[in-house]
């Protein structure tokens, strides 16, 4: 996909035309939506989730990612921030709007209900019971909007003895069973950043659940509750680990198997300039190309799958990789099937020729690099917003107006401290 510059206007243009779609979304099933969407063709590419309105209650990392995915693919995502907070911790706010709302006040709760009545999705990242305590539980909201998709993204899910416990990625990963498999031989388990539970098993799985529920709603006309547990999401992402045990892939202790850094042909190696190469030469024909590229003779080496010889083979690979720079090894293996690639840093990915050719990473208006939304849809690709992230409460006034609040009501909410507006900060 050629990433067209974003074009906040373009998104805005699409969005200002979406109320028609929304009416269709709310009243009629899918066909009507498509009819309206077809009518908009020619006004810019229509993203897959155009017309979908999402209310995202501000959270730490997984829910913001979920909201960003929905926004990247065209949904209108309004993040509900707290009042009296100077700075957001949401670094995944691309394309979102922000309203600052005090939910500790019943009037604030009433505002949120009104937003949810006119929305398709509410996404909440709090501990079990928090939303109910505020009078914003699924019973309260679905009663008023039966088409609402109520997504609950938590660590342990809505039931079970851990449901109310605090936790973070590493705890959920531990409870999923996967953490026990991660780490090098003879070392303790090691969490790969907070990628697996927070983002893959959490934010992404929740977004998938929301899209499924939207699809189902287009047939049934009904909303539903999504109970997205990061323990279960992570475990599900890791289904292969359970399903492949019958193959004997995990028979050895942690860090001594084929895919967990046990095998020397599935590992990373330091180069002479202190960088690294990643080696994934599993199949014999690819392994042969690795050996050739390294300038080794197969006759001098133990056989590839002789597990007891892996430590010796690894020492050989370590020694050889240390003789050239990363760039030199990249040149050696470029264009081969040896499955050897440079380990790129976050700063290097943008300029790698392959990534560059595909536009896999892009710069926003602040010059910040981030990954392009994946996957790429041929007719309705995501068009990530390139403008800066919203300030807390930047869109309070405009969102309230859009959701039908009168000017007088907005003024009262502002003067009562129920909502806060930061338009001025946005103009600075
Ligand atoms: C980048 C860091 C984030 C790391 C991610 C980490 C690894 C994770 O794993 S995130 C996954 C966490 N788990 C979940 O999300 C599971 C579900 N949620 C929960 O279990 C809980 O919410 C919880 C355990 C995460 C938090 O529990 P807590 O008790 O705090 O909250 P809840 O019980 O859920 O209740 C919420 C209460 O809030 C009230 N509320 C909600 N909205 C409103 C509203 N609009 N108005 C009023 N009130 C509201 C609600 O009513 C509840 O109230 P009650 O309690 O009374 O019921 C980042 C982690 C820390 C960051 C740093 C830090 O913030 C300091 C700096 C801040 C600065 O601004 C930026 C730099 C910082 C260093 C900052 C940097 C990073 O962002 C962090 C390191």
From TrEMBL:
Pathway linked to the protein: Lipid metabolism; bile acid biosynthesis
Gene Ontology cellular component annotations, sorted alphabetically: mitochondrion
SUPFAM superfamilies: CoA-transferase family III (CaiB/BaiF) (SSF89796)
GO MF entry, a single one: alpha-methylacyl-CoA racemase activity
Keywords: Isomerase
Enzyme class: isomerase
One Pfam family in the UniProt entry: CoA_transf_3
Protein's UniProt keywords contain Phosphoprotein: no
Catalyzed chemical reaction(s): (2R,6)-dimethylheptanoyl-CoA = (2S,6)-dimethylheptanoyl-CoA; a (2S)-2-methylacyl-CoA = a (2R)-2-methylacyl-CoA; (25R)-3alpha,7alpha,12alpha-trihydroxy-5beta-cholestan-26-oyl-CoA = (25S)-3alpha,7alpha,12alpha-trihydroxy-5beta-cholestan-26-oyl-CoA
Region of interest (Disordered), ranges: 357-390
BP terms from Gene Ontology: bile acid metabolic process
EC number in record: 5.1.99.4
Similarity annotation: Belongs to the CoA-transferase III family.
Function: Catalyzes the interconversion of (R)- and (S)-stereoisomers of alpha-methyl-branched-chain fatty acyl-CoA esters. Acts only on coenzyme A thioesters, not on free fatty acids, and accepts as substrates a wide range of alpha-methylacyl-CoAs, including pristanoyl-CoA, trihydroxycoprostanoyl-CoA (an intermediate in bile acid synthesis), and arylpropionic acids like the anti-inflammatory drug ibuprofen (2-(4-isobutylphenyl)propionic acid) but neither 3-methyl-branched nor linear-chain acyl-CoAs.
PANTHER family, A to Z: ALPHA-METHYLACYL-COA RACEMASE (PTHR48228:SF5), SUCCINYL-COA--D-CITRAMALATE COA-TRANSFERASE (PTHR48228)
Protein name per Swiss-Prot or TrEMBL: Alpha-methylacyl-CoA racemase
Organism the protein comes from: Cirrhinus molitorella
């Amino acid at each position: 996909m050629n990433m067209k510059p974003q074009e906040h206007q373009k998104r805005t243009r699409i969005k200002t035309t979406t109320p028609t779609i929304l009416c269709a979304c709310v009243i009629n099933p899918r066909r009507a939506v498509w009819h309206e969407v077809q009518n908009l063709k020619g006004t810019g590419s229509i993203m897959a989730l155009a017309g979908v309105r999402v209310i995202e209650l501000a959270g730490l990392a997984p829910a913001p990612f979920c909201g960003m995915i929905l926004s990247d693919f065209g949904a209108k995502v309004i993040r509900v921030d707290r009042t009296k907070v100077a700075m957001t911790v949401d670094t995944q706010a691309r394309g979102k709007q922000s309203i600052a709302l005090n939910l500790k006040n019943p009037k604030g709760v009433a505002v949120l209900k009104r937003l949810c009545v006119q929305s398709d999705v509410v996404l909440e990242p709090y501990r079990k019971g928090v939303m109910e305590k505020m009078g914003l539980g699924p019973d309260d909201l679905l009663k008023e909007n039966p088409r609402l998709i109520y997504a609950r993204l938590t660590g342990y899910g809505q039931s079970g003895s851990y449901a109310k416990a605090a936790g973070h990625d590493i705890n959920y990963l531990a409870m999923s069973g996967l953490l026990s498999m991660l780490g090098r031989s003879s070392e303790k388990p090691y969490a790969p950043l907070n990628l697996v539970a927070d983002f893959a098993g959490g934010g992404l799985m929740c977004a998938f659940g929301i899209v499924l529920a939207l699809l189902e709603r287009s047939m049934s006309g009904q909303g539903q509750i999504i109970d997205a547990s990061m323990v279960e999401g992570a475990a599900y992402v890791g289904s292969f680990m359970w399903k492949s045990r019958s193959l004997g892939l995990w028979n050895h202790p942690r860090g001594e198997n084929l895919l967990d850094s046990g095998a020397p042909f599935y590992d990373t190696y330091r180069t002479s300039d202190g960088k690294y190469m990643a080696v994934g030469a599993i199949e014999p024909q690819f392994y042969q190309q690795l050996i050739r590229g390294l300038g080794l003779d197969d006759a001098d080496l133990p056989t590839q799958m002789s597990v007891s010889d892996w430590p010796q083979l690894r020492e050989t690979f370590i020694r050889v990789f240390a003789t050239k720079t990363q760039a030199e090894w990249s040149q050696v293996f470029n264009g081969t099937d040896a499955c050897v690639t440079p380990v790129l840093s976050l700063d290097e990915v943008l300029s790698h020729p392959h990534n560059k050719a595909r536009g896999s990473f892009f710069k926003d208006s602040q010059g910040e690099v981030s990954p392009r939304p994946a996957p790429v849809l041929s007719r309705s690709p995501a068009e990530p917003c390139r403008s800066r992230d919203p300030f807390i409460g930047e869109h309070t006034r405009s969102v309230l107006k859009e959701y039908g609040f009168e000017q007088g009501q907005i003024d009262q909410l502002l003067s009562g401290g129920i909502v806060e507006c930061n338009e001025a900060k946005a103009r600075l």
